[in-house]
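Researcher: I need the complex structure. Ligand is iron/sulfur cluster. Inputs:
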Amino acid sequence: MSDDKNLSPFRIAVDELKIDYVMAPIDQEYSTFTGVGSSPLDFKSYDKDIPCQAACPAKTRVPHYIQALAEGDPDKAYRINQEDNVFSGVLGRVCSRPCEDACRHNWTDTQGPVHICHLKRAASDYKTNPPAPLPAWFGTSTKRVAVIGGGPSGLTAARELIRYGHEVTLFERDSMLGGMMAQGIPVFRLPRDIVDIEAKAIIDSGVKVEYNSTVDADKMQQLIDEYDAVLVAVGTTKAVNLKIPGHPENGHGISGLKFMYDYNMGNIGDMEGQDVIILGGGFTAVDCARSCARAASRLVGDKGSVKIVYRRTEGQMTGDADEIEEMRLENIEVFA
Ligand code: SF4
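Model: Output:
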């Protein structure tokens, strides 16, 4: 790695698995110098020529990691993903896959897209070693940063700040890391060990963690006084109030977020004989419905049922056709 502190960390060359960070000579040119596209011109080209990579919010180097898999090297494929999108084992299971909608195989409308997301999961599942911390880009800056929240955002920020050479302390209100990945997504969709090992790779890069640490106004002032910077990455944990009779804020029912949190933490009691109606057709609604149905004998009993009520058509639900079919197999009725 170069000692030059002025090098841009976004100019990355990958030579086998050795990472060397070098800067392209002119920002407006293609990154032929580095071998990895990262200039504005590169991204313009991606939009046209590699639409899957352009459609991915993390701009994951999809062709690179699929090629590594095709060459029989899942460790390299995982490492490429790890650089680009941090929680690639997680995303290989729960990403909404905008890359696949953009895949050029869709253009011919013959075989559907390349199964990019499943290939990401394959790289994660077939890698031979657990993920290791990524190398730092810069030496120590002597700056101290407090990150509030140990979910995907806080962990990602912590990882990148460490790579920039800063000292990072992460404050998490619960006794576990992962945030929504661990508490909001049902375990049958995302096994917790996948979250744990990817979070561990970040913590092992040198992040200090204070668990069970709630940050109120006094604590926030203390952090502001003690640290060079404070990053708030607490997520959106407050449910939307629908302002209709029966909404949790009006004393009835339970929000999807709260249900999934309680369910994942084992805090849902029996609802023997009750019917469960879930309003909405997004990912949270589907997760709630399938979690209820999978625990049906305990939660709703033989006499109970789980139904989704959605204001639009079934085709407009966020879940894909496979998911809707799986819901039917789990005896979940959909009224759309
Ligand atoms: S599966 Fe998700 S994270 Fe992976 S390339 Fe596609 S959009 Fe990006």
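Model: Summary of the prediction. Strands lie at 12-15, 18-21, 144-148, 167-171, 208-210, 229-232, 276-279, 306-309, 332-335.
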